[in-house]
Design goal:
The protein has about 160 residues and is an alpha+beta fold. It is built from 7 helices and 4 strands, in the order αββααβαβααα.
Length: about 160
C-alpha cells in the first residue's frame, strides 16, 4: 500500500538507498521508503530535512511524520547491518561531528531507533545529537533499550520533531 502511494505521489523508485557507516566503520546500504522528490536526496551529501522542506513530497511528509519511511530498515536489521536500538546510522561526512569520539560511535551497531530519536528527533541540533548518541553507548543496557523503544513509539504517535 505504501509503495503504491509513493508511486502515485511522485515519479521515481519506491525505495531510497544510501550508504551509511556502521559498526567498525563498515559501509552498508540503508533502505527507506522514498519521501523526497527524485534526485533531491540521491547523493550522499548531508542535508537534513527541515520543517516545510520543499524536497519532501506530500505523501513523504506523512511517511516521515509517522516514521513509516523507516520500515524497510527491518531488512537492514535482518541482515545484521543494524539493530533495533542503537545510534542512528550516519553518512560518512557526518563522522567528523563526533571528533575524537568517532571510534566510540563506530563501536556499536547502528539502530533503527535511538536515544536521540526518543529525545526529540529532528528538533535536536547535530552537536547535541552526538551527545545523545554517545550517552547511549556509554549507558546501553537492556532496560535502557526498552525505555528507548517505548519513548520512540510515543514520539512517533505524537509526531514530535519529525520532518
Amino acid at each position: 500500500m505504501i509503495a503504491l502511494c509513493i508511486k502515485l505521489d511522485s515519479p521515481g523508485p519506491v525505495l531510497f538507498k544510501q550508504f551509511r557507516t556502521g559498526a567498525n566503520g563498515k559501509r552498508f546500504k540503508v533502505y527507506k521508503f522514498r519521501s523526497m522528490k527524485l534526485h533531491q536526496e540521491q547523493d550522499n551529501k548531508v542535508t537534513q530535512a527541515s520543517r516545510k522542506d520543499p524536497r519532501v513530497t506530500p505523501f513523504g511528509a506523512f511517511l516521515r511524520r509517522t516514521s513509516l519511511d523507516e520500515l524497510p530498515q527491518f531488512y537492514n536489521i535482518f541482515i545484521g547491518d543494524m539493530s533495533l536500538i542503537g545510534p542512528r546510522p550516519i553518512v560518512e561526512e557526518e563522522l567528523s561531528e563526533y571528533g575524537n569520539q568517532c571510534d566510540k560511535f563506530l563501536s556499536v551497531l547502528p539502530g533503527a531507533m535511538g536515544f536521540w530519536q526518543a529525545s526529540g528527533r529532528s528538533s535536536i541540533p547535530y552537536p547535541e545529537r552526538c551527545q545523545y548518541e554517545l550517552y547511549y553507548i556509554d549507558n546501553c543496557s537492556l532496560w535502557f533499550d526498552i525505555k528507548i523503544f517505548f519513548k520512540c513509539i510515543i514520539s512517533i504517535f505524537r509526531a514530535s520533531g519529525a520532518y
